UniProtKB/TrEMBL annotation:
Stated name of the protein: Endolytic peptidoglycan transglycosylase RlpA
Recorded name of the encoding gene: rlpA
Family: Belongs to the RlpA family.
Taxonomic classification: Bacteria, Pseudomonadati, Pseudomonadota, Gammaproteobacteria, Pseudomonadales
GO cellular component, one term: plasma membrane
Reported function: Lytic transglycosylase with a strong preference for naked glycan strands that lack stem peptides.
Length: 295
């Protein structure tokens, strides 16, 4: 047990096991995301959840500007790099959990301790990296959407789920190798080449009658990606369908001399519903859906 001076004549008693379980992030707002100060001790959630089935982040080409502006934390200035695809570094990884769960990241997204995400001091936001635990050779892919860790001896802060999957959540830190990923190259190598979709009408059968009827009704849809591989498209369709009640279907379309298999979700009743689903899918690391119309 460790006792620290407290207010008045009392003392604050902290269990050593709790200190070891926490990721020991600095008591400041992460990156430059803003928000209220947090005073609770960081650590793992109080309830158990099996994270082994949480999928890795899927590298998706980013549309729009990256966040890579210089910033200052704890009196130290950082200058992010503009391209993280060739980034390589070996060093210590830590993790952060309950203290920041639900708070905004430096990228303006909501931190989910069960998401496959990470914080990095200088990689552009967002970017994707492969993190390998050098002690057990376990490897994961995460989406970098936050700033940190602001300890000089650590190179990356993983989500709680990422640390569990790499096998060092209880220990707190691990020596890792971090490798930047080019989403376009990654998808080509994995047969999942995503292409910006066309809002043309859907006129082909979907995998089941319910999805087919939805596809023909018209209205608003979310396009989750377009793939040269029908197996890759079906894999994404199945994964997303397990998360939502709205029908998810695969729609082949001819582009020049090749067939692309578009994965779409809908129809949706309103733009508000579309925005809610887009946020949910993004937090699940399933890319950045595009709002399209069947007309």
């Amino acid at each position: 047990m460790i006792k620290l001076p407290g207010a008045g004549s009392g003392t604050i008693v902290l269990c050593l096991s709790m200190l070891l379980a926490a990721c020991s992030s600095p008591p400041v707002q992460r990156g430059d995301s803003g928000g209220i100060p947090r005073t609770v001790q960081d650590g793992a959630p109080a309830y158990f959840r099996d994270v082994s089935q949480i999928p890795d982040a899927v590298p998706v080409p980013h549309q729009g500007p990256f966040k890579a502006s210089p910033y200052t934390v704890l009196g130290r200035s950082y200058v992010p790099i503009q391209d993280g695809r060739n980034y390589r570094e070996t060093g210590l990884a830590s993790w952060y959990g309950t203290k920041f769960h639900g708070q905004l990241t430096a990228n303006g997204e909501q931190y989910d301790l069960y998401g496959m995400t990470a914080a990095h001091k200088t990689l552009p936001l967002p970017s994707y990296v492969r993190v390998t635990n050098l002690d057990n050779q376990r490897s994961i892919i995460v989406r970098v959407n936050d700033r940190g860790p602001f300890h000089s001896d650590r190179i990356i802060d993983l989500s709680y789920a990422g640390a569990v999957k790499l096998g060092f959540a209880e220990r707190g830190t691990a020596r890792v190798r971090v490798e930047g990923i080019d989403p376009v190259v990654w998808q080509q190598q994995n047969g999942n080449r995503a292409v910006a979709g066309s809002p043309a009408p859907v006129s082909v059968p979907a995998p089941n009658p319910t999805a087919r009827a939805a596809a023909l009704e018209g209205g608003l849809y979310l396009q989750l990606g377009a793939f040269s591989s029908d197996q890759a498209a079906e894999q994404l369709r199945s994964r997303v369908q397990g998360m939502v009640q709205t029908p998810v279907f695969v729609s082949p379309v001819q582009v020049d001399s090749r067939t692309l298999h578009r994965v779409r979700l809908g129809p949706l009743d309103s733009h508000d519903e579309a925005q809610q689903l887009m946020e949910r899918l993004r937090l699940a690391n399933l890319g950045s859906p595009t709002l399209v119309s069947a007309h």
